[in-house]
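Hi R.,

Here's the chain you asked about this morning:
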Amino acid sequence: MTNAIHPPPPSATDWRDSAFDLMRGVAAYTDSPLMRGLADVLGKHPAADLGNAFNHKQIGSKMWARDALHQALGGRIGNIVLLGGWYGILAAILFDDIRFDIGRITSYDIDPDVGAVAETLNKAWSDRFSAVTADMYALDYASLGADLVINTSCEHIADLRAWLTLLPRGCRVMLQSNDYFSEPTHINCVPDLEAFVEQAQLSTLEFSGSLKMKKYTRFMLIGTV
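And the predicted structure, written out as tokens:
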């Protein structure tokens, strides 16, 4: 009996080609528009930091956000403004979930290199998704007509209350922060959920919770300003 002949393992230089082929196979098997979008990102945007953006911690926190949103607000949400949207992964996770009926998601990020990646990932919902390069402090929130503003990076905001005052009174928000003080870019972490509630001072609170991660705990609030 002869041994089967297998191709050599992929080298370090062609791993993206192998990952692209793998994701196309996963997309074909699952028939998932999110997986098709991810495969396209691998093919069209080889410099995108997907290993960081799509790691299990990032996905775990976004799935937690998705489930908490459904619990607090139900599945029908009109216009979502997503701040610090990065590669648009949270938007894709929400669009891909059959429990949700979302009118539109606009993803804002100050980094000009992420918008094209976000639109590739969300191309299955291109009629309801767009990525905009903009500074969240410079937006005219009253003109955006948002039914929900999402900011999952409150640890990067020096004065959270000052930013929240830019939103129209009664605007619904979903906010996340963490206690990862050792990360240099985190300039406004909170030690616990109670501190986050006090920091945000929302007028109504429909959800508050904590998600323990390996190195830190993530905190989330859903309510109105």
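The chain has a mean pLDDT of 92.

Let me know if you need anything else.
M.
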